[in-house]
Amino acid sequence: MSGSPMGWIAKIVRVGRVVEPAGPAPAPAVKPPAAVRGSLQIRHVDAGSCNGCEVEISGAFGPVYDAERFGARLVASPRHADALLVTGVVTRNMAEPLRNTVEATPQPRLVIACGDCALNRGVFRDAYGVIGAVGEVVAVDVEIPGCPPTPSDIVAALRSVTGR
């Protein structure tokens, strides 16, 4: 194929959009409250991560994986959220802000722990500034394992909550 713009446009029209099919919704990770079925407003909280999970969350909500098509949407305030997506270990400086954020999120709410650090402290297990895993500080409803979890794992977990 030539490098001309018309050649590239012709290829785009001929090939079309190349993505994996969505497939059936995964089995529910948790029985979500009726208020969050079909739509989930999520506030992301970084409690002390290395930012690996944040990169994958960006990918999950980007144009390739597009978690919004399954009803999951990131919001800017815990007061507008149905769920909190917490990444990283909980550090000494983030324990109280995490508890406050959970309290600021209206009921019914879900807490989703994303990544091995959030689940079991991961590689930061014995670090001096670590209070513990997310489940040791606040109650966790959904767990997404991985270091970091792939965007498809994150989307699958969110789909199990929204039911879409």
TrEMBL record:
> Which Pfam families does the UniProt record give?
Oxidored_q6 (PF01058)
Record-annotated NADH:ubiquinone oxidoreductase-like 20kDa subunit domain positions: 50-160
InterPro entries given in the database record: Complex_I_20kDa-like, NADH_UbQ_OxRdtase-like_20kDa
Specify the signal sequence span. none
The UniProt keyword set, sorted, is: 4Fe-4S, Iron, Iron-sulfur, Metal-binding
Q: Which cofactor does it need?
A: [4Fe-4S] cluster
Q: Which GO terms describe its molecular function?
A: 4 iron, 4 sulfur cluster binding; metal ion binding
Keyword Metal-binding belongs to the record? yes
Cell division found in the keyword field: no
Q: Family assignment?
A: Belongs to the complex I 20 kDa subunit family.
Designated name of the protein: Ni,Fe-hydrogenase III small subunit
Native organism is Mycolicibacterium moriokaense
